[in-house]
Amino acid sequence: MHSGSTTTSDAKRSSTKKKFEPRTFTGCSKIEDYETRNKIGEGTFGEVSFAQHKKTEAKVALKRILMHSEKEGIPITALREIKILKSLNHPNIVPLLEMAIKKGDKSSRSRGSIFMVFPYMDYDLAGLLENPAVRFNQSQIKSYIKQLLEGTYYLHQHNILHRDMKGANILIDAQGNLKLADFGLARSFNPEDPNKAYTTLVVTRWYRPPELLLGATKYNAAIDMWGVGCVIGEIFKRRPILTGTSDIDQLEKIFELCGTPNKHNWPSVDQLTDWGKIQFKVYQRNVLRRFEQYDRLAIDLMDKLLALEPATRLTAGEALKHDYFYHGWRIAVPGTKEWVSDSA
């Protein structure tokens, strides 16, 4: 480490201390202020289009809120998403810039629409990983993982669960800035009330932690950290690492990689609603072996995030202090037991 830089311990202490004040909002715009181009995707509860502000020429993403009936008003899920996003202000969380309104027209019987306005981001992580022409170097990978953890740490410090952590909801711009997006399933939680029950109908299956698949309704920020672990594996493998075709098959694939739960590796597993309904083959944990050709410290971090028992998973704050962020990368040489590194 060069002269004048902070020590590892100082860096670890300071990495999670940043404070960001909530942003202020001044009102709504008309959708006519924007020139809408093409549809670019689907959010959890709305379609997303690329647009440009006519006056400022700022590029934005417009997320139209789907309303089944004007009489019923804005869905509670959308109101919750808007409220959460208005309370957040962090460089690794996609900001809600404003709301835009399209008025209905009785004469043409066209219904009104409400749009959430976000800054336009060039790519999503899943799309980049699917593109064989895109290759990340080790510094980029480390930067993306750190930014993802910084955003997740900020959410959890403000008692927000994302509940849909996956590559498609991680946006990256051409400058390498990463932002966590799509808060359609997010909600606030009370860390002081472990008995609060929540719905299990959250998190896309391939990123869903085993406790949810086994019927847990009392959960916490650990469900997001499982998703972060899956994303780290996906960055290295360049494809999702746990691709179950059903909830049962998803559990089978999790156990095949992370070991089958028992009283030793998950003492309270027998208290979950759906545990014991199906007998699974007994697998031994082999995360480190399955990913042994990749950066050893990164995979150690992933291994600790993919802990079966939620209480033993690293928190976002703990993950940011992992040695992976303070030491050079080490990668196995194929066909040997040797390693190459960028530092001593």
Question: Mind explaining what this structure looks like?
Answer:
By secondary structure, the protein is α+β, with helices and mostly antiparallel strands. The chain has two domains: 28-119, Phosphorylase Kinase, domain 1; 123-341, Transferase(Phosphotransferase), domain 1, CATH 1.10.510. Helices cover 28% and strands 17% of the residues. It contains ten helices and 13 strands. It has a six-stranded mixed beta sheet with strand order 1-5-6-4-3-2, with no helix packed on it. Strands 7-9-10 form a three-stranded antiparallel beta sheet. Strands 8-11 form a two-stranded antiparallel ribbon. A hairpin with a 5-residue loop joins β9 and β10. The longest helix has 20 residues, at 138-157. The chain is globular. Mean pLDDT is 87; it is low at 1-7.
What's the short version?
Helices cover 28% and strands 17% of the residues. It is an alpha+beta fold.
Topology, please?
Blueprint: H1 8-14, E1 28-30, E2 34-42, E3 46-53, E4 59-65, H2 76-86, E5 98-102, E6 113-119, E7 123-124, H3 125-130, H4 138-157, E8 160-161, E9 170-172, E10 178-180, E11 187-188, H5 210-213, H6 222-237, H7 247-258, H8 287-290, H9 296-305, H10 316-320, E12 330-332, E13 339-341
Parallel strand pairs: 1-5
Antiparallel strand pairs: 2-3, 3-4, 4-6, 5-6, 7-9, 8-11, 9-10, 12-13
Helix pairs in contact: 4-6, 6-9
